[in-house]
Task: structure prediction
Amino acid sequence: MRYPALIDGEAGAYGVVFPDLPGICAMGATVDEALVHAEDSLRDYAIEAAQDGEELIAPSALEDVDVPPGSTLTSILLIRESPCNRKVRVNMVLDADILAVITSEARRLGITRKDYVEWLVRRMANGDGHLRRV
Result:
């Protein structure tokens, strides 16, 4: 599910709100940081709703959202954590240069390659949704 989100603010202080989810919001120094925090807030909302036995509020269609002046409309994909934290093993063949980038970036961030790939997929899923072959 993709939830409409409104971004506003200025350099150093951006905010994201979900028109369908009063009280669910996020902030960041950059738009990217605010969007990452918004993804986390949305996931936290889904976790808390499940713990409370509540149904998730259905997202509105983007064309039905009123966009106040100064705000930008986007959508955030809800990527739920598996309730049993089920992991699946996959075998992949990657270009050696791509693997080197994954390894380098994971080390730079102090995380595993698996965590980096999961993080990257979440970022791409909440981007424009298009992968471009370069």
Remarks:
- Residues 31-51 form the longest helix (21 residues).
- Helices lie at 31-51, 96-109, 113-125.
- The mean pLDDT is 86.
